[in-house]
Specification:
The protein is of the alpha+beta class and 306 residues long. The strands form four sheets. Strands 1, 2, 3, 4, 7, 10, 11, 12, 13 and 14 form a ten-stranded mixed beta sheet that branches. The protein has a five-stranded mixed beta sheet with strand order 15-17-18-19-16, with helices on one face. Strands 5-6 form a two-stranded antiparallel sheet. It has three domains: 91 residues, Pseudouridine synthase; 139 residues, Pseudouridine synthase (2-Layer Sandwich); 63 residues, PUA domain (Archaeosine Trna-guanine Transglycosylase, Chain: A, domain 4), CATH 2.30.130. It is globular and about 75 Å long. The chain has eight helices and 19 strands. Its EC number is 5.4.99.25. GO terms for molecular function: tRNA pseudouridine(55) synthase activity. It holds the Pfam family TruB_C_2. It is an enzyme of class 5 (isomerase). Keywords: Isomerase, tRNA processing.
Length: 306
C-alpha cells in the first residue's frame, strides 16, 4: 500500500488524528501528512502512505490556497472562532468593499508575520501553544511570508456592530491565515478573528480531487483503497523529470552519482529532479551536485533492491 491520498479533512480532527485513522484503515504504520491543519479547518490534506512518506517534504513546501471568513469587531485568544474573546470594538462606521479591497491589495507580496501564540512554532525548544496554555506570552520573531493572491469573495456584511466578509488567499508555507485575518482587522482599525477556513488547494492538489473519510472507509471495505492513492510520480509531477533506460535504473537504485544531462545544466544546485524508469515509475529524486556542476547526486532513493 503506497501513494498519496488526497483527504478532504473534516472539522473536529487534528492532522495527527487523520494520520492515526489512516494507519488503522490502511493497516500500515508508514503514514504522514503534508502540512498541519487546525481542528476546525477543513479541506485539502495530502496524506502519504508507504514509500510515499519519503516525499512529504516536497509536498509540504508547496503553496496553499484557502477560502476564509473574517469577523471584525472582536479578537480571540486563538485568533479563530474557538478562542475566548480578548477585545471588543463595535464597528459603527461603514467599512466599504473598496476599503477592504485596498487593504487586501496592500498585503500582496512578501510581508512580515508574527506567528500566533497558539501554534506549533518552537521558541527556546518549546512549542508556542505550550507557553500559551500555561498563560505565558513571549516575544515571537517575525517571519517573512509570501502572499501571491488575496482577493475579496462576495459582499462585505455589516450588522449589529460586526463586519464579516470572505476572502481567498494563495500563500507560502508557514503562513497563518488566522493571523492574516487579525492583520486585516488591524489595518481597518478593529480587532478581528478568522471565523471560518477551508483549504481549497495544496500545491497542485485541488479540493475537487479529495476524498472524505466515508468514501475511504467504503473503499477499504471493498479492498479498493490502492485505487484512491496517487502514485508517487504523479504526486511529484510539478518537478523536473528525467526518463532513463533500465541499465541506468540499476545505478539509480543503488544511489550512484550520475552525469547531469545537458537540459538540466542551468538548474540551481540542490533543486530536485525526479528520475523515472521506462515503466514510468519514479525511482529517486536527484539534484545538481553542489561542487561538481557536471554531475547530479541522489537526495532520496525511493525504490531500491530492498
Amino acid at each position: 500500500m503506497e501513494g498519496v491520498l488526497l483527504l478532504n479533512k473534516p472539522a473536529g480532527m487534528t492532522s495527527h488524528d487523520c494520520v492515526a485513522k489512516m494507519r488503522r484503515l490502511a493497516k500500515t504504520k508508514k503514514v504522514g501528512h503534508t502540512g498541519t491543519l487546525d481542528p476546525d479547518v477543513t479541506g485539502v490534506l495530502p496524506i502519504c502512505l508507504g514509500r510515499a512518506t519519503k516525499i512529504v517534504e516536497y509536498l509540504t513546501a508547496a503553496t496553499k490556497t484557502y477560502e476564509a471568513e473574517i469577523t471584525i469587531g472582536y479578537s480571540t485568544t486563538t485568533e479563530d472562532a474557538s478562542g475566548e474573546v480578548v477585545e471588543r470594538k463595535s464597528v459603527e462606521s461603514p467599512i466599504t468593499k473598496l476599503m477592504v479591497e485596498d487593504v487586501l491589495r496592500s498585503m500582496v507580496g512578501t510581508i512580515e508575520q508574527v506567528p500566533p501564540m497558539y501554534s506549533a512554532v518552537k521558541v527556546n525548544g518549546k512549542k508556542l501553544y505550550e507557553y500559551a496554555r500555561a498563560g505565558i506570552e513571549i516575544d515571537r520573531p517575525a517571519r517573512l511570508i509570501t502572499i501571491n493572491e488575496l482577493v475579496l469573495l462576495g459582499d462585505v456584511i455589516q450588522k449589529d456592530g460586526l463586519v464579516t466578509f470572505r476572502f481567498r488567499v494563495t500563500c507560502s508555507k508557514g503562513t497563518y491565515v488566522r493571523t492574516l485575518a487579525v492583520m486585516i482587522g488591524e489595518r481597518l482599525g478593529y480587532p478581528a478573528h478568522m471565523s471560518h477556513l477551508i483549504r481549497t488547494k495544496s500545491g497542485n492538489f485541488h479540493l475537487s480531487e479529495c476524498f472524505t473519510f466515508e468514501e475511504i472507509e467504503e473503499a477499504v471495505e471493498k479492498n479498493e483503497l490502492q485505487k484512491y492513492l496517487l502514485p508517487i510520480g504523479n504526486a511529484l509531477n510539478n518537478l523536473p523529470k528525467l526518463l532513463i533506460h533500465d541499465t541506468l535504473a540499476e545505478k539509480v537504485k543503488n544511489g550512484a552519482v550520475l552525469e547531469l544531462p545537458t537540459q538540466f545544466h542551468d538548474i540551481e544546485a540542490g533543486s530536485p529532479i525526479t528520475i523515472f524508469n521506462e515503466e514510468h515509475q519514479c525511482l529517486a529524486i536527484y539534484s545538481k551536485h553542489p561542487t561538481k556542476s557536471h554531475l547530479m547526486k541522489p537526495i532520496k532513493v525511493l525504490y531500491n533492491e530492498a
